[in-house]
Write a structure and sequence with these properties.
This protein has 275 residues and is of the alpha/beta class. It has a four-stranded parallel sheet with strand order 2-1-3-4, sandwiched between helices. Strands 5-8-6-7 form a four-stranded antiparallel sheet, with helices on both faces. It has a four-stranded antiparallel sheet with strand order 10-9-11-12. Helix 1 crosses helix 8. The chain is globular, with a radius of gyration of 20 Å. The N and C termini lie close together (12 Å). The model has no long low-confidence stretch (mean pLDDT 92).
Length: 275
């Protein structure tokens, strides 16, 4: 019998989502136990170099300390899902570079130093996101429409000791949330009903959503052909000009809208990778 260690994400990396993030991992654990696996669950903060080495790790960890331990485990032959490299690949700065090199459509993006108050190449309106880590505070992601707002947002990041920002062009269009598990048929989109005009008919709204979700799904082959990306992932895409533009990609999201189906797909993935 193979043993599996599940690791919950630290609360600081899961603002407002702790219960939802924990729920998907607990659901996966329940399904794995039903398949005969021995499963233990711990929090990211509890992980230590002295923690017994399991056969398989399923984790939501993001801290440098936890990822260092998991990297050592990978090198020792433990199957780690998602790999440490894939978690690091979707940190904002890394993701911007990955999309540029892999041809994944994104809004125009700039990586800028916060030491400089204004950057002439930037086009307004735009979104300013802290580089590196995921959002942990309200100021970590904000939309600005003027140079004054831009300089104020950059100054706030600089004051917090954040040296780089990822600036992304604002595009008008519905935002689609999506979830997927590589190597399985699982794919789920949240339709953008509230993003379409109230003046159109319900039938037209349904048609628009189906079209938007088809465009969103077209991103998956591009994402999954990049070996650096996570196996268990979710993201956000803006639909504009008959194209789905990736605006965010996350390792192991909460799957709260499709938890049971996602959990079954993740169990299938664990079985595939654990052979």
């Amino acid at each position: 019998m193979k043993n599996v260690l599940g690791i919950f994400r630290a609360a600081c990396y899961s603002p407002g989502m702790v219960e939802r993030d924990e729920a998907i991992l607990r659901t996966v654990a329940r399904h794995l136990e039903g398949e005969g696996y021995e499963v233990s669950l711990i929090h990211e903060e509890e992980l230590a170099s002295t923690t017994p080495l399991p056969d398989i790790v399923i984790h939501m960890a993001r801290s440098a300390r936890a990822l260092d331990i998991l990297q050592a485990w990978q090198e020792a032959g433990c199957r780690v899902i998602n790999t440490v490299e894939s978690v690091q690949a979707v940190e904002r700065t890394s993701l911007a570079r990955l999309c540029a090199t892999r041809g994944i459509p994104t809004p125009k993006t700039w990586i800028v130093p916060t030491a400089t108050p204004w950057h002439d190449e930037v086009a307004l309106p735009c979104w300013i996101k802290r580089a590196g880590a995921c959002a942990q505070e309200p100021d970590d992601v904000c939309r600005v429409t003027s140079r004054v707002e831009y300089e104020e947002a950059i100054a706030r990041l600089r004051a917090r000791g954040i040296h780089e920002a990822v600036v992304m062009q604002h595009l008008e269009g519905p935002c689609i949330k999506f979830y997927a598990v590589k190597g399985t048929d699982f794919f789920h989109c949240l339709p953008a009903y509230d993003k379409w005009s109230d003046t159109i008919s319900p039938a037209r709204r349904e048609e628009n959503n189906a079209y938007a979700m088809t465009l969103c799904r077209s991103l998956l082959p591009l994402i999954e052909m990049a070996n650096e990306t996570p196996t268990i992932y979710g993201g956000d895409a803006i639909i504009a000009d008959d194209t789905a533009y990736l605006i965010d990609l996350n390792d192991w999201p909460s799957f709260s809208a499709c938890r049971e189906d996602a959990a079954k797909a993740i169990v299938l993935l664990v079985e595939q990778q654990g052979r």
